[in-house]
Specification:
Length: 265
């Protein structure tokens, strides 16, 4: 366990509640509070950081993460999370999940990726925070994040790993620029399928087997392009969703109104 980090006991709960309030987080009622807390205390025994957890069999929900204002930026939150995840992993938990509407970039910087809120509800239907948010009608506005516990680093997307292994096994390695042309040509084939399926726009479009085949080819090509250029698709997708979410909050639209060099649609 990291120095200064320990599991909380009942006597710590008032200090934890005070820290959560000071950090602008809700202090849940005892019935709805996290079942377990890790905390960090300074050399005087004063609470500096806390992290709550509601663990199920194979998934755990992290919540109530707070670091005292004067102690931020020193890795305390990361240390608490790594301590909690190591303990949960040794208990057989496979995934850590959390809700966060405001601190998504933080969770991403410690290896979490955005997942549908429904994943959390399905994995931990009886977790106090899930029940509480459901009862208060908050789930539709929530954003959920997940980190697999098999590795400490961000997991490469599964599909991307499958494609990378396939390409290596069959000696199909190609540079990114060739992979880009391959992707464009697959998108062209997809377009051709749609033209044929609609008799060049004369009938309405119904996805058929040819369409599904071609979408699979496009997806393969995109995964191959991402691998060839060293991009983790889950990671960049998370960043894109955050960008769109903040644009939508700002302007009600997700498209950029002004195209800048670093801010294309
Ligand atoms: C978010 C919070 C817990 C971070 O605590 P911290 O101890 O300062 O975080 P750490 O020092 O461990 O930082 C870990 C990483 O997260 C990044 N990070 C820290 N705060 C961040 C923020 N607000 N936004 C984005 N990234 C952040 C750090 O740069 C660091 O990344 P790096 O190691 O790659 O440089 C703290 O700011 C806090 O208590 N905020 C108020 C309560 C809150 O929002 N809790 C989360 C509820 S979901």
């Amino acid at each position: 366990m990291n120095p200064g980090v320990r599991l909380a006991g009942g006597q710590d709960m008032p200090a934890i509640a005070a820290l959560l309030t000071a950090c602008g987080l809700e202090t849940p009622s005892p019935a709805q509070t996290a079942r377990r807390f890790w905390l960090h205390a300074d050399e005087h025994g004063e609470l500096t950081a806390c992290l709550g957890c509601e663990a199920g069999h194979r998934a755990a929900l992290l919540r109530s993460l707070a670091v005292r204002v004067d102690c931020r930026g020193r890795g305390l939150a990361r240390g608490l999370i790594e301590t909690a995840l190591a303990a949960l992993s040794s208990e057989g938990v496979e995934r850590a999940l959390c809700f966060s509407t405001d601190a998504g970039t933080f969770w991403q910087s410690v290896g979490f990726v955005e997942v549908p809120v429904g994943d959390v509800v399905a994995a931990l239907p009886d977790a106090p925070q899930v029940r509480d948010y459901a009862a208060r009608g908050m789930l539709p506005e929530e954003v959920a994040y997940c980190r697999g516990l098999a590795t400490t680093a961000l997991d490469e997307a599964r599909g991307q790993r499958l494609v990378r292994d396939f390409i290596a096994r069959h000696a199909l390695t190609a540079p990114p620029e060739a992979r880009l042309l391959d992707l464009i040509s697959e998108v062209g084939e997809l377009a051709k399928t749609s033209l044929k399926a609609t008799a060049y726009g004369r009938t309405s479009f119904v996805p058929d087997d040819a369409w599904r085949d071609e979408i699979g080819d496009v997806y393969f090509s995109l995964l191959a392009l991402a691998s060839a250029s060293g991009v983790d698709l889950d990671h960049v997708l998370g960043a894109t969703l955050l960008k769109y979410r903040s644009r939508h909050a700002r302007s009600g639209e997700i498209g950029s109104t002004q195209i800048r060099g670093d801010d294309h649609d």
